[in-house]
């Protein structure tokens, strides 16, 4: 499992879907606080984290269906936490192939960039929910967002 954030997803495969380009993301040193999301169509896990401390904290999961309802709650979290940047988990099949939720997560990332003007870093989130459930998390979505953010923070110099 790769823990490198995805820097660029512009390359397209034969089916026109974005293919992951695994390259270390350039994260400015002054970016210290992050808000992470484990995107889902019904629930979106949320976590906060600090580069300096290397710690993540789960936040209440966003329970909203539909982009408008979700974005209202995302906006409230961004206003509350004032992060330097955002981190999203991007799911892939075990073999690294993209699937329907891959495209949805990437679209969510583009919407975040456009709406909030913050840099969005993408992390391969394969197995994060499985790991969260296995650890006995009461809120698997928030725990998964923590795992995604921990992977991202570990990848930073």
From TrEMBL:
The protein's matches in InterPro entries, at most eight in alphabetical order, are given as: RNaseH-like_sf (IPR012337), YqgF (IPR005227), YqgF/RNaseH-like_dom (IPR006641), YqgF/RNaseH-like_dom_sf (IPR037027)
For the keyword Nuclease, the answer is yes
Please report the stretch or stretches of sequence annotated as the YqgF/RNase H-like domain: 32-132
Is Repeat among this UniProt entry's keywords?
Answer: no
Q: What is its main location?
A: cytoplasm
Q: Which UniProt keywords apply?
A: Cytoplasm, Hydrolase, Nuclease, Ribosome biogenesis
- One Pfam family linked to the record: RuvX
Localization in the cell: Cytoplasm
EC id: 3.1.-.-
What is this protein's function?
Could be a nuclease involved in processing of the 5'-end of pre-16S rRNA.
Family assignment from sequence similarity = Belongs to the YqgF HJR family.
- What is the name listed in the Swiss-Prot or TrEMBL entry for this protein? Putative pre-16S rRNA nuclease
């Amino acid at each position: 499992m790769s823990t490198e954030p995805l820097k660029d997803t512009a390359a397209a495969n034969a089916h026109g879907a974005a293919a992951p380009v695994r390259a270390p993301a350039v994260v400015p040193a002054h970016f210290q606080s992050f808000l992470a999301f484990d995107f889902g169509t019904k629930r979106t896990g949320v976590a906060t984290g600090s580069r300096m401390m290397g710690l993540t904290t789960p936040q209440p999961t966003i329970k909203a269906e539909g982009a408008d309802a979700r974005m209202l709650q995302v906006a409230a979290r961004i206003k509350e936490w004032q992060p330097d940047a955002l981190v999203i988990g991007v799911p892939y099949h075990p073999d690294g192939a993209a699937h329907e939720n891959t495209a949805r997560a990437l679209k969510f990332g583009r919407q975040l960039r456009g709406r909030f003007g913050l840099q969005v870093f993408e992390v391969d989130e394969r197995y994060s929910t499985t790991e969260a459930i296995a650890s006995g998390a009461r809120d698997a979505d928030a725990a998964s967002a923590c795992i995604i953010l921990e992977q991202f923070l570990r990848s930073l110099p």
